[in-house]
Amino acid sequence: MRSAFMVTNDFKIKQQDLTELNGDGNRDRGRNGEDLKEEMPSVLKILKENTIAKLVKGEVVVTFNKINGDKRVMTCTLQEGVVPEATKKDPASQKKVQKINEEVQVVWDVNAKGWRSFRWANVTEVASV
Fold first, then answer.
1. Contact predicate 27/52, CB 8 Å
2. Whole-number CA gyration radius for the chain
3. DSSP structure class, residue 20
4. Relative to the CA of 64, which of 30, 45, 73, 110 has its CA 20 to 30 Å away?
5. Sign, CA torsion 22/37/99/8
6. C-alpha pair distances (Å), 109 with each of 22, 42, 49, 59, 84
């Protein structure tokens, strides 16, 4: 089975393909002409599914680039019993709020002891603790 890091690297390479125009100016095709519309979501889907499964079981170290360009390494989890129970005072803890944007994952930062989020497209590495 491929590691989440390998899947992440594959996703990053394909994402880079999308941002570099090929000869005919088509962003929907990779360097070798492959159709990335279908391939990209499946790679990202695998990364998300594998990472969320690890988050639910325990702590995971996620490395990603923040919106401002800074690199961030965060130890986080979604493990029941570790994350606080949802309250009306803390909307980030409510599942309904977490599902609004599929491009963003809300997690419990173990070190900061608070809810944080990251964009899946900006993830560079995922490792189990």
1. no
2. 16
3. S
4. 30
5. negative
6. 40, 27, 19, 9, 11
Range 52-83 burial, b when 16+ CB lie within 10 A, else e: eebbeeebbebbbeeeeeeeeebbbbbbeeeb
Where residue 44 falls among pLDDT bands split at 50, 70, 90?
A: confident
Sign, CA torsion 45/48/53/54? positive
Strand partners, 125: 63
Q: How do residues 51-103 score in pLDDT, each as one tens digit?
A: 999 999 999 999 999 999 999 999 999 999 999 886 666 655 555 544 567 88
pLDDT in tens, 119-129: 999 999 999 98
The reply to whether the predicted model has a pTM over 0.90 is no
Amino acid at 12: K
